[in-house]
């Protein structure tokens, strides 16, 4: 079974940047996404990227609140998906998870905590 391990989170001041990584235990040919869950809220979609296969390509997509600030990318050779987060805001504080898109319930990992605070 595929295991996804997120890393790169931390405490950052508003306006700062972080780069999250999601390392898969094996090659994944599915579309991938980052999700986040803030305290007291439901988990939500943040950004998605296609599988890399020419037959299933789609332009990376983002929730409105992170457009222009976050960038999702993947390195197929390293089985890794990234989320570059710039100009972070306190509302971005959450645990960030990666998973397939749509998510596979069996693949949820521990996530990585992102805290944006002065």
Q: Would you give an account of this structure?
A:
The protein has 118 residues and is mostly beta strands. It has no helices and 10 strands. A 6-stranded mixed β-sheet has the order 2-10-9-4-5-6, with no helix packed on it. The protein has a 4-stranded antiparallel β-sheet with strand order 1-3-8-7, with no helix packed on it. The protein is globular.
Secondary structure layout plus pairing:
Layout: E1 4-7, E2 10-12, E3 18-24, E4 32-37, E5 44-49, E6 61-62, E7 70-75, E8 80-85, E9 94-100, E10 112-116
Parallel strand pairs: 2-10
Antiparallel strand pairs: 1-3, 3-8, 4-5, 4-9, 5-6, 7-8, 9-10
Concise overview:
Helices cover 0% and strands 44% of the residues.
Please describe the structure with a list of short key phrases separated by commas or semicolons.
single chain; 118 residues; mainly beta; 4-stranded antiparallel sheet; globular
Poorly predicted ranges: none
Helix share of residues? under 10%
Proportion of residues in β-strands: 35-45%
Order of helices and strands: EEEEEEEEEE
Mean pLDDT: 93
Strand order, main sheet: write it out.
Answer: 2-10-9-4-5-6
Q: Sheet with the most strands?
A: 6 strands, mixed
């Amino acid at each position: 079974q595929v295991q996804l391990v997120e890393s790169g989170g931390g405490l950052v001041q508003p306006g700062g940047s972080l780069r999250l990584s999601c390392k898969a235990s094996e090659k994944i040919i599915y579309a991938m996404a980052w999700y986040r869950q803030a305290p007291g809220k439901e988990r939500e979609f943040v950004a998605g990227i296609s599988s890399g296969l020419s037959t299933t390509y789609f332009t990376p997509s983002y929730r409105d609140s992170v457009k222009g600030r976050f960038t999702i990318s993947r390195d197929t050779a390293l089985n890794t998906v990234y989320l570059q987060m710039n100009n972070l805001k306190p509302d971005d504080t959450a645990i960030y998870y990666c998973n397939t898109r749509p998510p596979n319930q069996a693949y949820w990992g521990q996530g990585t905590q992102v805290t944006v605070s002065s």
